[in-house]
Write a structure and sequence with these properties.
Distance between the termini: 52 Å
Structural class: alpha+beta
Number of domains: 1
Order of helices and strands: HHEEEE
Number of helices: 2
Number of strands: 4
Strand order of the largest sheet: 1-2-3-4
């Protein structure tokens, strides 16, 4: 019984470590976008995402560039602990 409970605990821990919450993912995407777009003189203020299902998310990124701030539609795909984002 102890071995079963220990195995169940290990499996639950491993599974939970592989998942992002929507809010955590939005923060990670925002940080990554800031790093990528900084060289182009852009600043990412905020990223908001909604979960579409499966590995797919979509949302809005608020970005400033050349004195103008606009909202851009983005898509995000998550595969375990990795993600990709794309401005539409």
């Amino acid at each position: 019984m102890k071995k079963f409970l220990f195995a169940l605990f290990v499996m639950a821990t491993l599974c939970s470590c592989q998942k992002y919450t929507t809010e955590d993912l939005a923060e990670e995407v925002c940080d990554h976008m800031r790093k990528e777009l900084r060289s182009e003189g852009a600043y990412v203020h905020d990223v908001r995402l909604i979960h579409l299902g499966g590995d797919n998310y979509e949302g809005v990124a608020k970005i400033s560039c050349d004195g103008e701030t606009l909202n851009y539609d983005i898509t995000v795909v998550v595969d375990g602990m990795y993600f990709t984002w794309e401005i539409q």
